[in-house]
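Record filed here:
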Amino acid sequence: MGRDKLSLTVGGVPLIRRVYDVLSSHCAELLVAGAADRLPEIPVARTVEDLRPGREGPLAGIETGLTAARYSLVFVAAADLPFLPADLVGYSLTLLTRERVSVVAPRHEGLHPLCAAYDRAILPQVSAALDTGERSVTRFIRGLRGVRFVEGEELSRFGEPEFFLMNVNSPEDLERARACGGVE
C-alpha cells in the first residue's frame, strides 16, 4: 500500500475497527501486536509491542500475540480483512476445542493463516521456528501436527470466500473493498 493500512476506511469505518467489531463478538480479549504508535482509537483493545522488532513478519506477530494472550484459544486476524465473518471466528474457535487441534485455518486458493484460530500451546514451536529463521506462517503451519482446514463447502457456509478472505494490500484492493462495502 505504501502507507499504514489500519486507519484506511471501508464503508466509512477504519479497517482495524471492522476487524475489532467482529472479533469482539467472540473474543474476551483483543490484542493488537506491534501497532501501538499507529493505532486508531479502539476501545478495550490492548496493544503489545513486538517481541522481535525489525519487521520480522506475521509469524513474529503471532508469537507476540500468543505470548501476551491471557487465554489459551487465540484468533489471529490481519487488520486488513474488511469482511471477516463473525460466524467463521466462532466456528474456528469451537473446532479448535472440539477437535483438539493446534490450528484451525481457512484454505481457499491457498492457506489463510492470518484469519485462523490457534491454541496458545504452540507458542514454543512458533518461537523455535523463528529462532531458526523461519518467517513464513504458511510453512510453519504446514509443518505442524493437528491442523484443521476449513475449506470447500464447509467454508462457503460463511459466504463467498473470495469476498470475506479479501485482504487490502494495494490501492486496487482498497477500491474493490470500498465498492463492495459502501461508498466513502
User: Anything to note?
Assistant: Residues 86-98 form the longest helix (13 residues). The chain has a mean pLDDT of 90. DSSP finds eight helices and eight strands in the chain. The beta strands are 9-10, 13-14, 31-33, 46-48, 73-77, 103-107, 115-119, 147-151.
